[in-house]
Amino acid sequence: MALFAGLAAAAATAAVAVDVTGGRPEQQRIAAGRAVAAGAGGQGQAGACFRCHGFDGAAQAAAAVPMLAGQSAEYMHDQLRHYASGERQNAIMSPIASALTEQQRADAAAYYAAQRVPPPHVERPGGDPALIQRGGVLSAVGAAENGVQACQNCHGPAGIGMAPNYPRLAGQPADYIALQLTLWKRGERPGHAPYNWMVNIARRLSDEDIRAVALYFASVQTEEASRRVGVLP
């Protein structure tokens, strides 16, 4: 009996130690992240994540709001840091991120990363089929004549993402992807390691190329693509 009591005490002590260092169990982080999404962080109800991203992390294609569900937690945490520091500017996200603690930013990222990826938000027939095909070519092999490497070199086959650093593009709204590439092309979105080369790549893409890759990635069936390359069972 004393042995069991000792083990229980040791386990409790270890749990406290883990919590103090910030390396809490994943389920605790997810639960805390949901509370942040509901507005329980320093951002308050007006800046609650769910108001734009919902609790499921689905995209809002019409508003160019990205899908967060199933995205790399590390990547989302990095972006929240950049918003908080002012390195990445956005009139909505910057004040929200800066109002959160570092732990709250990490918890919110863990919560949305744990959500199930919803279906894509662009109809497959939408857009010029030839343009979508051009986007698929750029994703798979790039454009050597313009010095553009294949998107999949960093973002994985069909843009399914390569955690922890490279985000999933598959299933993101076309307008959101096009907007981010345009901001990089104009120098209005800075590059952060290991994404510094996105500025250079975007500047080598024509406006038509940007629309092509945006439409292509928006049309990718995310779960289907993940299963095809063995990421999902």
Automatic annotation (TrEMBL):
Subcellular location: Periplasm
Signal peptide range: 1-17
Domain Cytochrome c: 28-116, 130-221
Main location class: periplasm
Keywords for the protein's UniProt record, in alphabetical order: Electron transport, Heme, Iron, Metal-binding, Periplasm, Signal, Transport
Pfam families reported for this sequence: Cytochrom_C (PF00034)
Keyword Transcription regulation: no
Name of the protein: C-type cytochrome
Organism: Pararoseomonas baculiformis
